[in-house]
Amino acid sequence: MKTRDKILKESIKLFAEQGFEGTSMTMISSLLGFTKPAIYAHFANKAALFEACLDTISQEQITYIKSTLENPSLKTIETKLHSIINDCILIQDNHAFLFYNRFYLLPPVELKEQIKYKLDQSTEKWSSMLMDAIHNAIVSGEIDKSLTKTEVLSSYMCILNGVGYEIGSKHNLDHIWKIFWRGIKAN
Amino acid sequence: MKTRDKILKESIKLFAEQGFEGTSMTMISSLLGFTKPAIYAHFANKAALFEACLDTISQEQITYIKSTLENPSLKTIETKLHSIINDCILIQDNHAFLFYNRFYLLPPVELKEQIKYKLDQSTEKWSSMLMDAIHNAIVSGEIDKSLTKTEVLSSYMCILNGVGYEIGSKHNLDHIWKIFWRGIKAN
DNA sequence: GTCTATACGGCGATAGAC
DNA sequence: GTCTATCGCCGTATAGAC
Questions:
Q1: From A164, which residue of chain B is nearest by alpha-carbon distance?
Q2: Closest alpha carbon to B101 in B13, B177, B160
Q3: CA B53 to CA B56: how far, in whole Å?
Q4: How many beta-carbon contacts under 8 Å exist across A and B?
């Protein structure tokens, strides 16, 4: 793996766990066995490094949602939607999801506008893929026809946010998923 | 209002909006018309100030949940539960709720243990009040008898987390609430 | 209790040798 | 590209006058 990519990977992990202000350039470099100036050979400053992390994460998220929705072994909409949430909270080194949630919800004030712009753009892409899948499920009768795709999607996104923090706790997901599915399934 | 209380109030607001590392003692004091050392006359250090904020918030949260559950004008369990979420996201200067969520989910690493300990204690108190109310509603038949109180409570808490960040957006709450209630109401 | 002044450390960022 | 050394700034925290 190239040095630049190593820096990105370590930065994503640290930003996700400790936040933007809580992560220093010294911390990142020393965990990689470098010193601080080495990072500045690859990124102009801390904000630029952060934005590169943001772009990486955004692209991964889109790719991941797309591949899950198209995965032929997940046949029903319920298994597809459940699989996405399940992966997000269960994958051990899933700093990507934590990063996404953390900075979407609580960005550092100084970078608030740039972050919102970038994340809104990428969220639009993967949420519209979900919207299409949900639409098809309503038409096919898997999801109750009296609900709109917007209602289902925004509820789903709320759960994805709410459950996302209890990393490793499959317990609560079972509960919320049972009730969510009772709420949207066709009678 | 006493100086100490003014400091607490302003600190809660700033910590909630900008995070722990993103809020400086100078910032807090200057917004109150003081200088930095004035704060140190009331609090030993930044961590002690933060923990005092935490205690204030925790106490308020418990009081608020209790009063809502006992409010005689809210007659059904649906109106009680809905009212709590609604207040949390709609009240304009509700830094309390943002503070609670922010540091429950993403505490600064250096204070992680203390925060978890305090918040787990207070969360236990108000969530057990919710648990009792939900239990009664299952017994009375307002909520479907095939569900357990634990399932309903942990789903509700998930929504409270997930919807809590879209401050001022009643839009999404309407959607998620509709589906949540379909999921738990008695047939 | 609140001020001015200051100590001390860690931060982001850069210069210049290799 | 990576190092050592250093800059300037701002953070927490304290001393001592009023």
A1: B162
A2: B160
A3: 5
A4: 110
**How many whole angstroms separate alpha carbon B51 and alpha carbon B43?**
10
CA angle B111, B114, B119 (to 5 degrees): 115
Strand partners, A185: A143
**Residue B23 in tokens:** 């809020």
- Using a CB-CB distance cutoff of 8 angstroms, which residues of chain A are in contact with residue B165? 105-106, 161
Cβ of A120 under 8 Å from any chain B Cβ?
Answer: no
Among candidates A18, A176, A183 on the partner chain, residue whose Cβ is nearest the Cβ of B158: A176
Q: What is the pTM of this model?
A: 0.96
Mean pLDDT of chain A: 94
Cα–Cα distance between A3 and A37 in angstroms, integer? Answer: 13
Cβ atoms of A108 and A20 closer than 8 Å: yes
Q: What percent of chain A has pLDDT over 70?
A: 95
Q: Which conformational region is residue B168 in: left (phi greater than 0), alpha (psi within -120 to 50 degrees), or beta?
A: left
- Looking at this protein, which amino acid is placed at residue A46? K
CA distance B48 to B20: 12
At A80 the three-state DSSP class reads: helix
Q: How distant is the Cα of A148 from the closest Cα of chain B, in angstroms?
A: 9
Q: What are the Cα distances from residue B18, in Å, to A7, B11, B33, B70?
A: 26, 10, 19, 34
